[in-house]
């Protein structure tokens, strides 16, 4: 009887998991499928769930990439630049700060930790005006550096807090044992401690990547010139340029924006899962 109940429960959970997966994946499938269809099939009465060879087209991607009203290449370069710099700054500064908070005792340490928590509680929208005034005062409006500084400031508190849990979970005795075996302090850190912190760096790096790659509101305020647009702003401009009638091109543009994020997740997904679970336990 117990085995039968367990089998029914497993089957029920499996059905729920499949339903959630279909519910989550279908919009993505519809976006990709629509991007390969001509507009007359997209807006026609007969829906095409698969881009069969007789209707398959790449014209939507050509319209998105070579649109004269919304240049695609500068937006890609801006997004890559902002995301890369944000990742580097957040991981380097967050890692060093987490080490300092965990391995060293100094005056004001506990206050600093509490401030990190308080800063995370403030909604980002509440600080948009102050951030705009600061970036404007530094003459960094419409620059990659200006937007990068804003993104880094927003992501750093979460990064420091999460990495602190990872660093705290690595015993100092491991480094001391490596030093007894002949390693220098720096060698013991890079050969023993740093590899154990890799899942935490990946998890926080993924969070920083998502924030910098997909963010819209702050970019709309900081990057006001057309040549300074990031990809989310470019997509809005592209939709306005096509007057929201060329749905195939809009879907193709959405696919183009999603491709780098998907590639990044495929590269780091192995370590990301372990990092998120470990951070949840140790944080």
Automatic annotation (TrEMBL):
Membrane spanning residue stretches: 12-32, 76-100, 112-132, 144-167, 188-210, 247-268
Domain ABC transmembrane type-1 residues, every copy: 76-268
Predominant location: membrane
Subcellular localization, as worded in the UniProt entry: Cell membrane
Membrane topology: Multi-pass membrane protein
InterPro entries (UniProt xref): BP-dep_ABC_trans_perm (IPR050901), MetI-like (IPR000515), MetI-like_sf (IPR035906)
The UniProt record lists the keyword Transmembrane helix: yes
Keywords: Cell membrane, Membrane, Transmembrane, Transmembrane helix, Transport
Family, per entry: Belongs to the binding-protein-dependent transport system permease family.
PANTHER family documented for this protein: INNER MEMBRANE ABC TRANSPORTER PERMEASE PROTEIN YCJP (PTHR32243:SF18), MALTOSE TRANSPORT SYSTEM PERMEASE-RELATED (PTHR32243)
Protein name: N,N'-diacetylchitobiose transport system permease protein
Native source species: Promicromonospora sukumoe
């Amino acid at each position: 009887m117990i085995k039968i109940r367990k089998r029914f429960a497993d089957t029920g959970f499996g059905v729920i998991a499949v339903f959630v997966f279909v519910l989550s994946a279908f919009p993505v499938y519809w976006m990709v499928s629509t991007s390969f269809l001509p507009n007359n099939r997209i807006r026609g009465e007969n829906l095409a769930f698969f881009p069969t060879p007789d209707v398959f087209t790449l014209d939507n991607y050509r319209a998105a990439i070579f649109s004269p009203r919304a240049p695609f290449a500068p937006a890609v370069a801006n997004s890559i630049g902002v995301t890369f710099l944000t990742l580097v700054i957040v991981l380097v500064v967050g890692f060093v700060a987490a080490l300092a908070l965990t391995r060293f005792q100094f005056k004001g340490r506990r206050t600093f930790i509490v401030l990190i928590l308080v800063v995370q509680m403030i909604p980002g929208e509440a600080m948009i005006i102050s951030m705009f005034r600061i970036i404007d005062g530094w003459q960094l409006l419409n620059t990659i550096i200006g937007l990068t500084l804003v993104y880094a400031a927003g992501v750093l508190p979460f990064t420091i807090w999460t990495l602190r849990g990872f660093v705290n979970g690595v015993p100092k005795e491991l480094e001391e044992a490596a030093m007894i075996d002949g390693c220098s302090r720096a060698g013991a850190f890079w050969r023993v401690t740093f590899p154990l912190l890799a899942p935490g760096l990946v998890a926080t790096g993924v969070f920083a990547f998502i924030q910098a790659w997909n963010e819209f509101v702050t970019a709309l305020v900081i990057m006001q010139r057309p040549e300074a647009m990031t990809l989310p702003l470019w997509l809005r401009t592209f939709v306005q340029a096509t007057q929201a009638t060329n749905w195939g091109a809009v879907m193709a543009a959405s696919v183009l924006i999603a491709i780098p994020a998907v590639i990044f997740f495929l590269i780091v997904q192995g370590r990301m899962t372990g990092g998120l679970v470990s951070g949840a336990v140790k944080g």
